Amino acid sequence: MADPKGFLTTPRREWPRRPVGERVRDWDEVCVPGALLPLVGPQADRCMDCGVPFCHEACPLGNLIPEWNDLVARDDWRAAAERLHATNNFPEFTGRLCPAPCEAGCVLAINQPAVTIKNVECAIADRAWEEGFAGPAPPERLSGRTVAVIGSGPTGLAAAQQLTRAGHTVAVYERDDRIGGLMRYGIPAFKMEKRHLERRIEQMRAEGTKFRTSTAVGRDVDATGLRARYDAVVVSTGATAWRELDVPGRELTGVHQAMEYLPLANRVCEGDLETSPLSAAGRDVVIVGGGDTGSDCLGTAIREGAASVTQLDIYDRPGAERDEDTEPWPTYPKLYRLSAAHEEAGVLRTAPEAAWDSDARLFAASTLRLTGDAEGRVRALHLAGVDAERRVRPGTERVLLAGLVLLALGFSGPDREDGLVSGLGLEMEPRGTIARDAGFATNVPGVFAAGDAARGQSLIVWAIAEGRAVAAAVDRHLTGGAGRLPAPIGPYDRPMTA
């Protein structure tokens, strides 16, 4: 605890964002470059080094937060990077993309703004790369065992890195043409520039991990044949089966899933396309779904030059303060939060005048039907207000102009149509995820499942924790011993709730 009075004398200060009018004209990250490092020393000093640090419990990775806060406050960046990487393979990813459940569990948050844990984490990770503290860590010797990891999202990459460093020969199979999964084509560059991803991929290559892109197991490669070639297989394909909107008019042209829309915008940023065939430019856009994916669509549509953008959230607008009766500390509360995209929408007034909120969101809103023109193109979305039980409130029906409707309703589990699940003969849970036992093993010997494909849609920090935990399980399977790798979570662990 570098400054015992830091939490009393220093207010919370977060990484400042670039001006809205500047950042919506490009795809660069929204925060001011170089503005974080001057802040994090005093912010790390606000950490109280609690006797029982609940931030550990709130983080599924078990990050050693008080330790690296103290080291940053003392300007020992090398040691801070070592402690951070001891529990997290990719802290620059979580430092940008994680909603920071650790901050909700911060003891200081009981009656003050929490420590800026996420910002400190991001600063350590970036400083580690700048100072050369994040070099490759290849194994001293090889085990002679081979592992196939199917899927290159955060779970697959974390599992592959852990197993490679343990001495196993690992090949990662990815159906897309580039490694990264959702981080590559689902997350917009203004939230995380792809250079951070490329840097980690090159680190993993230098350590010995092999990558096989444009290879869909079950379609391009026979699933049973792949299983026979490797000593173990990790299925970490993510939850790619999107949820549908079952309303009249869904079949109209111009109604698309968010994960049809976002990858095309990312491909424009990658240089693969000059413009997206689903560009929002000049169109009235309605996003159905109030979560992070919907927010990503919002920020993307703004940058593409949409005429207007409205985001529908079926839930009531949450409050600005934690409800101690229903969501007591240290659980992660549902609060009214202003993402960078919502801030942009509020400043630019991209929503029509009829919007219920200045940041383009309509809360407690349910889609009734979609209507179109004579050519079958969507032209309007009909909605109504709903109560807490999602029952339509009489007299609340209204119409929004819509030339592009994006569905951001979440995901139910892995794709059942690509041949992987059926090819391997994997058993499934009733909710659509891959069944596994307490050791991450599926019903097929030597095949393990992890990440959103088995857990269901979750956060990036849980995905990385799953990757580390399944790697420990696979290592035990291959070596027949107690295992040498850390397992931060079990397959049945869940976030803290009241």
From TrEMBL:
Keywords: Amino-acid biosynthesis, Glutamate biosynthesis, Oxidoreductase. Signal peptide: none annotated. It comes from the Bacteria. Gene3D superfamilies: Alpha-helical ferredoxin, FAD/NAD(P)-binding domain. It holds the Pfam family Pyr_redox_2. Residues 36-69 form the 4Fe-4S ferredoxin-type domain. Transmembrane segments: none annotated. Pathway: Amino-acid biosynthesis. NCBIfam families: GOGAT_sm_gam. This is Glutamate synthase subunit beta.
